[in-house]
Design goal:
Length: about 325
């Protein structure tokens, strides 16, 4: 399982990334986030963006829904951003098949040297290998929360930030072929079969010598009963940013959801952005206590009913408070 296993490669990597245990506690960054002015995140708008993605059907590479959704995201982001770049690439899946992927990069103020990146993956998984019914393990899923909720959050952020831009350049990056890693029924595991779009982009950024001050990855941010913890890759590479985001959440009254708790390393797109480009990037990702991320993870029931618009609003608002507070 790509996110629940503490991978051997991650452990070797993280062993050299020291962080002092006492520093994981949230501290005062000198900013009253309740007083930071930001645009209003529209939960209904974000929810509509989820619904519109699901209307294309399955969105794994090689499907009509994948092609239509790529066009939908690109055209929507072009309405709000200054530039949109579609980065095509080929990727070999765990089973040897070659697929055509598309990373989509939309930018606000591309001329600004100081930049941040906000990211999510936009493909839906091809195999519902965590479904309680084994008959569904080789079926595709819609990926409403695992995929579409992160995309919708980015889209809503782009829509409202375009009208009230922060004092920093922003790159919205939609990674493809993130969720096509080796299924559980294959009876073997290979780390790098996941996150193929972010691996490609980190090795070949859309701009030569691309850099950003930090990044935030949004994954499964529409869960009905949200719980976000300080995941170990985020803490090892971007401890200060992680603590800042969780401190902001606490100030806004969400300490019971953005829990001040260290949790195991997760293999997600942020690993390769950190490891290859050395851009400190954190992962805001659902972490339930009694199941794999959330009950519908990698099952055919990850549909629109699995998404809560208010969770996306909370996550988007916290991210904006941090960004606008950092770049006044």
């Amino acid at each position: 399982m790509k996110r629940l296993t503490i991978l051997a490669a991650c452990l070797l990597l993280l062993a050299g990334c020291k962080h002092k245990e006492p520093e994981h506690k949230a501290k005062n960054y000198g900013i009253d986030y309740n007083q930071v002015s930001t645009p209003d995140f529209n939960a209904d708008s974000a929810f509509r963006f989820v619904d519109e993605q699901l209307a294309f059907g399955f969105r794994h590479p090689g499907t009509p829904g994948h092609e239509r959704c790529a066009k939908y995201i690109s055209e929507a982001m072009l309405r709000w951003c200054d530039t949109v770049i579609v980065q095509p690439f080929s990727a070999k899946l765990w089973n040897g098949s070659i697929v055509k992927g598309k990373n989509i990069i939309a930018s606000l103020a591309p001329e600004k040297e100081r930049r941040i990146l906000l990211a999510a993956h936009w493909d839906s998984r091809q195999w519902a290998d965590h479904d309680p019914d084994t008959n569904n393990w080789r079926k595709p899923l819609l990926g409403a929360n695992d995929g579409a909720s992160g995309v919708a959050t980015l889209m809503e952020l782009a829509r409202i930030m375009s009208a009230m831009p922060p004092n920093v350049g922003v790159d919205f990056i939609f990674f493809d072929v993130e969720d096509q890693g080796i299924p559980e029924w294959a009876k073997r595991y290979e780390d790098n079969t996941w996150c193929l779009g972010s691996q490609y982009w980190a090795q070949s950024p859309h701009r030569l010598f691309y850099s950003a001050e930090y990044g935030i990855l949004f994954d499964m941010v529409g869960t009905a009963n949200p719980r976000f913890t300080k995941e170990e890759v985020s803490m090892s590479f971007a401890q200060g940013l992680t603590n800042k985001v969780w401190n902001c959440a606490a100030q806004l009254g969400f300490a019971n959801i953005f829990v001040d708790e260290l949790s195991s390393a997760i293999l997600d797109d942020h690993l390769y952005v950190n490891q290859i480009l050395h851009i400190p990037t954190i992962d805001i990702v659902q972490n339930s206590t009694n199941c794999s991320f959330y009950p519908h993870w990698h099952t055919i029931s990850d549909d629109l009913e699995a998404v809560d618009r208010n969770t996306m609003r909370m996550v988007g608002t916290i991210a904006m408070k941090v960004i606008y507070g950092d770049f006044k």
